[in-house]
Design a protein that fits this description.
Among the domains are: 15-168, no CATH class; 287-297 and 386-486, no CATH class. The chain is 5% helix and 49% strand. The chain is built from six helices and 40 strands. The strands form three sheets. The chain has a 23-stranded mixed beta sheet that branches. It has a 15-stranded antiparallel beta sheet that branches. The longest helix has 10 residues, at 59-68.
């Protein structure tokens, strides 16, 4: 019995999307192909100035169908599935155009699924390959609109001219090409898409956009489904996620607790200026004990890069050769990270890492500083240390020491940072050698997110390995803190052993043991006045030193420490109205952003702060006080000219009304009348000098002081700070972050 003749090959799947000028709410008519069975379908279709949707062939399913095909199998129209009827009006429904939705041919060529051919725009240059019936210019009321639902395996192509080879399943385009597939967008001057292999070859002003990352180049080979490919002469922008709300916890405030080194006075004055359009992310404050060189601090959210070649990997990762990375939105950049090879990969929701070889920092296209490391973590929580630091800590480490910052060890989102310490001054004074345990110390930190709203941080400091592991109680410090975000509030559970804090004229005090929890509110804005209100409450069991003679005289006591449970409530109201405000210079590299990462806005602000603290201890002890602070803060100039173009100042007076006395020394309020004044002055170029001094007006003792010398540029800064009262210092390298929009010009500053 002769086999029936297979039906004619239907037209390819081509869905022409609506013209952007048409009203999307108005029902559109659909034209159907008018083709006789004897016509020969051309394997190519040409479209001009249109957006066309192509369906990716389901190759695996078709291979199975072809493999199961046998000449002994009878073929009939019934085996091809039910007929599909398309119509526009009731009159046209009497003459339907019928074709099978799936055609199987006994040939070695790959077939494809056939769907409907839609056109929503008038094409004046239609070819004989796409004979479309003319739709009425005035649709009748009987018109039945047919919705078009685009499947997920659809590739949309827009170009000045595109040609589709039906037999080879290849689309050739040129002129303002845009290719969309799921969350990927490709722009180019020319491109070729192979639907069978899912491969795109693009050339000329190529741009690949995936989520928040944009990579540009001259030529690209890219697989749409695998999200992998290669781009030559590449450049682009790395957009890193901001800190998640679960970890943006407000710092815990407590009387008597202070950082070893606060943020510089220049940073505090600049951060208080009125908000303008350009808003770089402020660097995190770094707690330092001793003099270190150099610490890197700052949050990096947006980077530019150039590379000779980039291999694109899934999940937003990539590898690059001969790469240059900068945080500077302008060219030529002031600061670059150059490397022979680099790989960007996400290691946690809050961390990305760049693995490099031959990496170095280049300042102002002149000075180069080798990094001596192959791993840089871009962390939105904490600083990234330099390879080594030199510090001074007389109490714990015996004086000067060298600390080596080993690359962190990753356990998924959890990171372990280990920093061995070599105690030089102790070794010299006690005649120690590298084989002695007293020659070494250690700093270790294990931290990371447990969930999007939970974060934990644990720290260990060992100051002497002489008797390790049987350490004396004064030879190590440790702490564990877990933060949980609850409806905007932050609940912090903590345990600490020998935590050291600063308490004004009482100096540094050690809390032997502490365990408890603190609930901190978010900042609450009070209307449009600019006033901010915060409060917190905590319950802790504390063991710390006391000087109360009635307690120390108890029989059987062998130290001066006591244990109490403390409940503390704290509320703070800040009202900083602007008295006068000038205008910032334009955010250009030669004006507003010449020496600073943020255009300077001249201003004078009135500072008014009210704070109330109540602490209730077991054994019928309590301490309550109400403090009020009033003063002025401001800055003049724009920090743009080379000489004396910036002056920042603050002057504050604090008065305390006190009731009761804490049994502990670490949180006892003793400074009741304080005058604070500070000044920062530009000397020349990016060089600024400053000081800040706080004095107890009742006894004349220094509550706190600080002297600073800073070299500031748009993308980085070097700050030397010394505090004689706290007996600490720091040398910090600040890396600035910018939020900008727009393209990325070449690093050379010369546009093609």
């Amino acid at each position: 019995m002769p086999y029936p003749v297979p039906p004619p090959e239907p037209p390819p799947l081509v869905q022409t999307l609506p013209d952007s000028t048409l009203n999307p709410l108005q029902p559109q008519t659909v034209s159907t192909p008018m083709q006789l069975s004897s016509d020969v379908v051309s394997p190519k279709q040409i479209h001009k100035n249109e957006t066309v949707a192509y369906q990716l062939p389901k190759l695996k399913a078709l291979e199975q169908e072809l493999a199961s095909f046998s000449p002994s199998t009878s073929v009939s129209a019934d085996s091809l599935g039910p007929a599909l009827s398309l119509g526009l009006t009731n009159s046209q429904l009497t003459q339907p155009q019928i074709f099978s939705p799936l055609t199987t041919q006994p040939s070695g060529e790959a077939d494809y699924h056939v769907a409907k051919s839609f056109s929503f725009s008038a094409n004046e240059n239609r070819t004989a390959d796409s004979l479309l019936s003319q739709t009425p210019s005035q649709p009748s009321p009987e018109t039945i609109p047919i919705p078009v639902i685009l499947p997920t395996d659809l590739v949309e192509v827009t170009a000045d001219r595109q040609e589709f080879d039906q037999q080879r399943q290849i689309i050739t385009t040129e002129g303002n090409v845009m290719i969309r597939f799921q969350n990927t967008l490709i722009d180019a001057d020319k491109a070729q898409v192979n639907l069978n292999t899912r491969q795109v070859v693009a050339s000329g002003n190529v741009a690949l956009t995936r989520e928040n990352q944009v990579i540009r180049g001259q030529r690209m080979d890219y697989n749409l489904v695998k999200s992998t490919g290669v781009i030559s002469n590449a450049s682009g922008v790395i957009s890193l996620s901001d800190l998640g709300p679960g970890l943006a916890a407000q710092p815990i405030q407590e009387q008597g607790v202070g950082q070893a080194v606060r943020s510089p006075i220049s940073d505090r004055i600049t951060s208080a200026q009125p908000v303008e359009n350009v808003a770089p992310t402020e660097g995190a404050d770094v707690e330092v004990s001793g003099l270190s060189f150099p610490d890197l601090q700052g949050n990096i959210n947006r980077l530019r890069f150039e590379a000779e070649r980039i291999d694109i990997l899934p999940n937003g990762e990539w590898e690059a050769q001969d790469v240059r990375i900068t945080n500077d939105p302008f060219s030529p950049p002031e600061l670059e990270l150059r490397a022979d090879t680099a790989r960007l990969q996400r290691i946690s929701p809050l961390q990305d890492e760049i693995l490099t070889t031959g990496s170095r920092l280049v300042f102002d296209q002149k000075f180069s500083l080798p990094l001596f490391r192959d791993r840089t973590v871009i962390d939105r929580r904490q600083r990234e240390p330099a390879p080594f630091s030199i510090g001074y800590d007389l109490d714990d480490l015996g004086g000067y020491y060298v600390e080596w910052n080993v690359s962190p060890v990753r356990f998924g989102p959890i990171g372990l940072d280990i920093s061995p310490q070599f105690l030089l001054q102790r070794a010299f004074e006690e005649d120690l050698n590298p084989s002695d345990g007293g020659f070494y110390g250690l700093q270790a930190e294990l931290s990371g997110p447990l969930s999007p709203y939970t974060f934990f941080d644990s720290r260990l400091s060992i100051t002497n390995f002489e008797d390790f592991p049987d350490l004396e109680e004064d030879e190590y410090r440790a702490s564990l803190r877990v933060r949980q975000l609850i409806g905007g509030y932050t609940l912090t559970g903590e345990y600490s052993y020998r935590d050291r804090i600063f308490n004004g004229t009482l100096g540094f005090r050690t809390i032997q043991r502490s365990a408890g929890a603190v609930l901190t509110s978010p900042e609450i804005l009070l209307g449009d006045s600019g006033a901010v209100f915060r409060f917190q409450g905590g319950l802790q069991q504390i063991e710390a030193r006391t000087d109360r003679l009635d307690i120390l005289s108890e029989p059987g006591r062998d130290n001066d420490r006591i244990t109490r449970t403390r409940f503390q409530g704290l509320a703070t109201l800040i009202y900083p109205p602007i008295i006068w405000q000038g205008k910032a210079l334009p955010a250009t590299p030669t004006e507003g952003l010449k020496y600073t990462a943020r255009p300077v806005v001249p201003f004078i602000r009135l500072i008014m702060v009210a704070q109330g603290v109540t602490s209730i201890y077991t054994e019928d002890d309590s301490q309550s006080y109400l403090s009020g602070t009033v003063g002025l803060q401001g800055q003049f100039g724009h920090f743009s000219r080379d000489f004396l173009d910036y002056t920042g100042f603050n002057i504050l007076y604090t008065q305390v009304a006190l009731d009761g006395e804490s049994p502990f020394l670490f949180d006892r309020r003793v400074d009741e009348s304080i005058l604070t004044f500070g000044l920062v002055q530009q000397i020349y170029g990016g060089l600024r000098a400053g000081f800040e001094y706080s004095i107890n007006l009742e006894n004349g003792l220094a509550v706190d002081n600080e002297f600073s010398l800073e070299y500031s540029r748009r993308t980085y800064g070097v700050i030397l700070r010394v505090s004689p009262v706290r007996r600490v210092g720091s040398l910090n390298l600040r890396i600035s972050d910018f939020n900008w929009t727009g393209g990325s010009e070449p690093f050379s500053g010369i546009k093609d």
